[in-house]
């Protein structure tokens, strides 16, 4: 075994360490560009808006109008973006009023 055989694993370990450092590097708010801050703030506002709307609806909806357990849905809503959208789409039963055809106009 020559010197290249012993340096190849060392080089690979060094490469892995560099990748870990790059993944662990977190930027501070002050280090973000203005568009990055705007995008992050918009995503956070959307997330909080969706979750707030879903929790508000869940708290006011009777248990028999929810598919499954209200406690489970309350937990699921906390999952970023997916949870509130899943509840609003799949967690609510349609009310009887929505299922009845509209009266014809005179």
TrEMBL record:
Residues 53-92 form the Cardiolipin synthase N-terminal domain. It is a multi-pass membrane protein. It is found in: Cell membrane. Keywords: Cell membrane, Membrane, Transmembrane, Transmembrane helix. The chain crosses the membrane at residues 38-56, 71-90. It comes from the Bacteria. InterPro entries: CLS_N. It holds the Pfam family PLDc_N. The keyword Cell membrane applies. The keyword Cell membrane applies. This is PLD nuclease N-terminal domain-containing protein. It comes from Amycolatopsis cynarae.
